[in-house]
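tool_log.txt
---
The assistant was asked to compare two proteins side by side. It first ran the structure predictor on the initial sequence, then on the second. Raw inputs and outputs are pasted verbatim so the downstream comparison step can read them without reformatting.
(1)
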Amino acid sequence: MRYKVFIDTNILLSGIFFEGNESKILDLVEIDLVTSEDVIDYFLTGDTHFFIEKIKNLVNVVTAKEFLIIIK
């Protein structure tokens, strides 16, 4: 299955420069990274400001670790 995923800047930079879950996300072939103008399945972020009901009602807000668990 393919997923449309929007990732925040922190996830992107961490994935490029460091090892860990963020790097694993960027290496996945099952995801399409999209812009905010596209319809998305998941919003990956580590910023707790986005984990509020108002946003979670619009999109699946998850951390990189949670997303890796979901797609396995």
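(2)
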Amino acid sequence: MEKQRYDTGYKEVGLPQLPVDRDFMYSFYKLWFMQDGYPGKRMDDGSISAHPIYGAYIVHDYLRLFKETKEKKYIEAAKKVADATLSHMQNVPNFNAIAFYYEDYKNLSYHAGKFYSGLTQARYLTPLFRLFKITKEEKYNTAVIKILNSLTVPQSKGGVCIQTSFGIAIEEYPHNIPTYVLNGWTTIIMELLSYSHQSKNTRAHELALKNIATLEKIINRYDCPEISLSRYQLTGFCYLKVISQAPKILRVNNVATYIDHKKYGMGATNNRWNNFVCDNDIDENRYAKNRQVLMNVVLSQINDTQMIEFEIESKSTKPGKLDFYISYGDYNPFVSAMPTKRWIWLDQYAIQPGINKVALQVENKNLPMIGYPTNFTKKLEDGNYNVYHWMHIHNFKKINKYYESIKLEYIKKKWMEYIKEWRRVDSLDAKNIRYLRPK
């Protein structure tokens, strides 16, 4: 008996059926066509939200079907989805650019606010350019150029391009504190190279090469040889606490960290990607109840060492002493951030009555799980897989198809060798872990 196919609602909007070999992904993404022909995501309440990246997937899939069958209906379908996509995109002010924005009310991302993704934007370059080449309709080429422009908009102006001390980088998602997500960044580079190869667009090619130059300088920071894994990103968070021997009454007014030489103070919300003082054990005036204050701090492996600054207020009339501790946890393949298992003493500082400025320096050797390694949280029928370590290798291979990077080729081979070691790594010795590449 033939297996029943996942219904994407294509008939209701006058589109042809999608490739059968993609059914699992359509089901996994809960894809359902909206009335205008855009492939949205069916939400738990039954509503359909326009997920920004889905249009790129479906234009690609219809163009693939056209290449295989030469049937014009698939070009018409690709055009309908592309037109719907462009109708959902918005102008990026002052940059002759367009973007498909993620917004809070759509519940499509755990990131707050309205923003666009470098990865999502880059995914549209090649399929829309291919559609232009086939149809000769200039609107698709114009859209591609404007999407390319969006990748150069500085993050400070609402975009995704950041200037690091190593060169420029395009972020998968714009954060107040940069995260340097490797999969997103390498996918963007890969898409820029693919598009520039087909279109001969030198600006896209140069943008890709600038990003590769930055990546080559910091790629070693993603390496975790002690557990034979790569990092998902360079930035992460952990808890830090200060315990007072004296005074009895103290308050942390501010905590700030430096990421790539830029200072970041406390965030507006107690989101773990912000620096903040936790509400545990403090009174209504933010003073410690039991001589200790717990904080969340955001740190990054892009730094050689971590600098943390505090403004601490003592209500005592006498000098006192403070001990600083940082949370620590071993790698767990089934979580996406470091679990707090124990505390490491860092240093002791003398403080005076009133306002005190304290600067604490933390060596990276005390922070091996900041910039958490890729995990095995992807659960399929037969077990848990590591998606992103494999994806890093795949992306390096794709990049080197267009540009020969000796550094990235070396890292690719090194990380492929890591996979052979997984069975011998204690933290990866779990019965439901699968060491093969997920399908």
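---
observation on (2): The chain has a mean pLDDT of 94. Residues 182-199 form the longest helix (18 residues).
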